[in-house]
Amino acid sequence: MSNITDGYVEKYIREVLVENKGLLMELELYAKEHNVPIVHKEVAALLKVLTKSVKAKKILEVGTAIAYSTIIFSYAMGSDGHITTIERNEKMIEEAKNNIKRAGLEKNIRLIQGDAEDILKFLDAEYDIIFLDGAKGQYNEFLNDCLQQLKSGGLLISDNILFKGMVATDNYAVRRKRTITNRMRTYLETICNHPQLDTSIIPIGDGLAISYKK
């Protein structure tokens, strides 16, 4: 249970959503077995809907891991879509490259190795969607560069925004996570009051913020 919503509601939603098959199911099993963080099932379903709704064809992702959400985005965009994804963990990069190859999406996905805070400053593109799923304590540092790269009418989607419920209440607080929690609270206050953004916070998965750039 994520502490974001009642366990029985979370369980029901995950049971009623259609199961993935093939490679995506394999990645879900791998993530569970090896304790690799990937987007929750209900978040993955929403990402697909949002991608199709805005007819996205160019996406930037911060935090690739094993490329689970990367592949979900790519499938949702179709064969003419392109996603740039950033990852700094070498082990994850090797797994991601292999999974991208298995999915047959090497022409649609560009994987960049390195620290997102550095890489974001040098990207020269305009994206329909930017998905933040990297280092939770650095979202504030990513924001200005992301807004420069995001087109007007585009979506900034931020995952793990409630961070196991710790952002919403100190009842779930873990002392060693207090810095990340405080930084995430600051980030939420910023995107909810930012003059360029209209933001909604959705209590699914580990918390998801969807911001529309005016």
TrEMBL record:
The keyword tRNA processing applies. It catalyses: 5-hydroxyuridine(34) in tRNA + S-adenosyl-L-methionine = 5-methoxyuridine(34) in tRNA + S-adenosyl-L-homocysteine + H(+). S-adenosyl-L-methionine binds at residues 39, 69, 87, 115-116, 133. Keywords: Magnesium, Metal-binding, Methyltransferase, S-adenosyl-L-methionine, Transferase, tRNA processing. One of its GO terms (biological process) is tRNA methylation. Homodimer. Catalyzes the methylation of 5-hydroxyuridine (ho5U) to form 5-methoxyuridine (mo5U) at position 34 in tRNAs. This is tRNA 5-hydroxyuridine methyltransferase. It comes from Alkaliphilus pronyensis.
